[in-house]
Amino acid sequence: MKKVAINKQNKLTDTILGFFRGMAFGVSTIVPGVSTGTIAIILGFYDKLLDAINELHKNPVKSLKFLVPLGIGAVIGVLLFSGLISWLLSTVPFPTMLFFIGLIAGIIPIIFNKVKSTQKKQLRSDWKALLMIAIPIALLVVVTHIRPEGEVDPAEMMAGVGWPMMMYLLLAGVIGAAALIVPGTSGSFVLLLMGIYHLATFALSQLGVWVRDPSDTALLLEIMRVVMPLGIGILIGAFSMARAIGYLLEKHTHIVFSIILGLVIGSIYALFGEPILWQAGLTPLVGLAGVVMMGVGAFASYKLGQTKI
User: Are 153 and 278 in contact (CB under 8 A)?
Assistant: First the structure.
């Protein structure tokens, strides 16, 4: 009886933990440029996430026990904290963004140690590791400077979505979901680069408008022409990328962690290039607050990241 009670308690603890991990995962999707994959590493469940996605067809019950609380937590995290994060980003963007930059920076020593340990085990040479680190950094530096400029009218875009745009949305969903899974890359940043971030967020916001007036079938059709292909693309991208990373982590651990290290370092550069970081100006007091918040974030993620990844 005691063993049964302990098992039930452990399962409940895992469910609650999964829910709160999901909330953090959801919050990270709101912040421009922040990688959800990196957050999963910081919180110590990146491997479990990949395994759950990859084993869904073989062991659906076990996978869903992990994915469902995570998914519910992510949705609630977005709904609960999107207002707060938006307020912080509009009111005190510099300290807020530096806190997230600190979270990312704090995981670098953990990933670096992983690169060094796998290098010894797999007898990889130093120059290959440096190359695998340097290429992603260079790539993120380049894409940071080619983001689209200028305002787009998302309502106009949504009204004009046809089959070619739906195919493009499907592709964007695949690439964006891949970026969500890979640490150091941001799905929202990829969608921004592909020119459909504002369209996607506007279409989702219009669901609330439709709920208030369900008789507006024309609006629902417009929303579905954006959400459906994007959603299908996200599912395809998430499952295919999780499978690919799972295979590569098993066969080429050193190379994968070297690339992840490069992506994480490059993402810090990309975050410093986010216009939102500088939108409220910079004073000595704001600068000091930012440095303090970056230190707090780095310390927190370093401590959290000292788990198996």
Answer: no
CA angle 298, 88, 209 (to 5 degrees): 130
The secondary structure element, H or E, covering residue 145 is: none
Give the integer Cα–Cα distance in Å for 297 and 186. Answer: 18
If you average pLDDT over residues 263-268, what whole number do you get? 88
Kindly tell me if the per-residue pLDDT of 2 is higher than 60: no
Average pLDDT over residues 57-79: 88
Report d(CA 155, CA 222) in Å as an integer: 10
pLDDT band at 10 (very low <50, low <70, confident <90, very high): low
Q: From the CB of residue 39, how many other CB atoms can be counted at a distance below 10 Å?
A: 26
| CA–CA dist 116, 101 (Å, integer) | 23
Q: pTM for the whole thing?
A: 0.75
Angle among Cα 188, 36, 205 to the nearest 5 degrees reads 40
Dihedral in degrees, nearest 10, Cα atoms 288, 294, 299, 303: 160
